[in-house]
Design goal:
The chain has 374 residues and is mainly alpha-helical. Helices cover 72% and strands 0% of the residues. It is elongated and about 75 Å long.
Length: 374
């Protein structure tokens, strides 16, 4: 067994290590069914499989038939990355999850390649490559066109979320800036990967240029994974140092509750977690690293309402800002309520009228009229 410590091998091994750590970091979130992590979990899982095969191939020399057989899921998995990148952006903007039919359409190209290559492998009479040169050329070009379409769609989703206020402009992976940064880094990774693939199609492929492009691709994937991992560790208290927990029978002082309420209000203003329609008391408490019972006490005692009362008040305030903005006049009330974090039309109208004493339509008409007169 010969192990080559080339730059490409080192980058592959380092990237795989971070991918594994990232997947472990997301597992507690998966158990809590945090939908915003699902696509990112899948994206890194697929990349972990792809990089893992590269690491394995640099360590072990497999018989040609086995190597070609393992290449089938490897080549097919690349077609899962574009829809996962798109779904990653959609998850971070709070878009509803994809239905079974939509998921089937997204994974159909990968399944077609898997089935087609498997049939070709078992039906060939003699050991031949999985692809002819023309077949490989079609595979590479279609893959990068496929990715480009999904990548543009991901940016459009992110831009629309920013325009409607659905995504907070915070410098974290959960905000508009952080999500955009992760998309940029992943786009750079894919660009270098595409360069290596296209160079391989030349009549006389320049080996050194291909290795260099692959190394840059792995380096940028390493950066993407490290950034996402840091964010995952920061957002999951299980992987961070925790302060000593107050005994359950020790009641907080009024000053402590006031301090907790200030932290909650500052976090709500700066990070806008209420834009997530699935936000729960436990999730908010974990983000603040505060026991849920203390969060509930601070909300009820200092802010004068239950968790849902306080969250809905912030959502109504967000909706008021959008309804009164002339630049967002084209948004329907339904689009506004979803962008503000509500997932029920009746709940939105009930909370809005309770807080403002007006219907959303009447409020918009009055606010826009006042803006035009002033």
């Amino acid at each position: 067994m010969l192990f080559s410590l080339s730059l490409s091998s080192l980058l592959s091994a380092s990237t795989l290590t971070l991918l594994v750590l990232f997947i472990i970091a997301l597992m507690p979130g998966a158990r809590r069914r945090q939908a915003r992590n699902t696509a990112l979990f899948g994206l890194l899982l697929v990349n972990g499989f792809l990089v893992g095969r590269l690491v394995a191939s640099s360590i072990w020399s497999l018989p040609a038939p086995v190597d070609r057989l393992l290449a089938i899921p490897f080549l097919s998995a690349f077609y899962l990355i574009p829809p996962l990148v798109y779904r990653f952006a959609a998850d971070r903007t709070g878009m509803p999850g994809a239905g079974a039919r939509s998921i089937a359409l997204h994974v159909l190209p990968a399944m077609l390649w898997l089935v087609g290559l498997t049939i070709r492998y078992f039906m060939r009479v003699e050991p031949t490559p999985l692809f002819s040169m023309n077949g490989y050329r079609a595979y590479v070009i279609l893959l990068h066109l496929f990715f480009t379409g999904y990548y543009v769609a991901a940016w459009r989703v992110l831009a629309h979320a920013g325009a409607t206020g659905r995504l907070a402009p915070t410098p974290t992976a959960g905000g508009r800036f952080g999500t955009g940064l992760l998309l940029v880094v992943f786009g750079i990774h894919w660009s270098f990967s595409a360069t290596a693939g296209l160079l391989a199609l030349l009549p006389d492929p320049p080996e050194s240029a291909i290795v260099f492009a692959e190394s840059l691709s792995l380096a940028s994937l390493l950066g993407f994974t490290a950034t996402a991992l840091v964010d995952a560790l920061r957002r999951h208290p299980e992987f961070a140092a925790r302060r000593p927990v107050r005994p359950a029978d020790q009641l907080p002082t009024p000053e402590e509750l006031r301090g907790l309420a200030d932290r909650i209000e500052r976090f709500m203003r700066e990070h806008k977690p209420y834009l997530n329609p699935e936000l729960t008391l436990d999730e908010l408490s974990r983000a603040l690293d505060i026991p849920a019972r203390l969060t509930s006490q601070a909300l009820n005692t200092v802010l004068g309402g239950s968790f849902f009362d306080v969250v809905n008040a912030y959502r109504v305030g967000e909706a008021q800002a959008m309804l009164g903005d002339p630049a967002r006049r084209e948004l329907t009330v339904l689009e506004v309520l979803y962008a503000a974090g509500f997932n029920s039309k009746s709940a939105f109208h009930r909370a809005f009228q309770k807080q403002t004493g007006m219907t959303p339509t009447a409020y918009r008409s009055r606010a826009l009229d006042h803006t035009e007169r002033s």
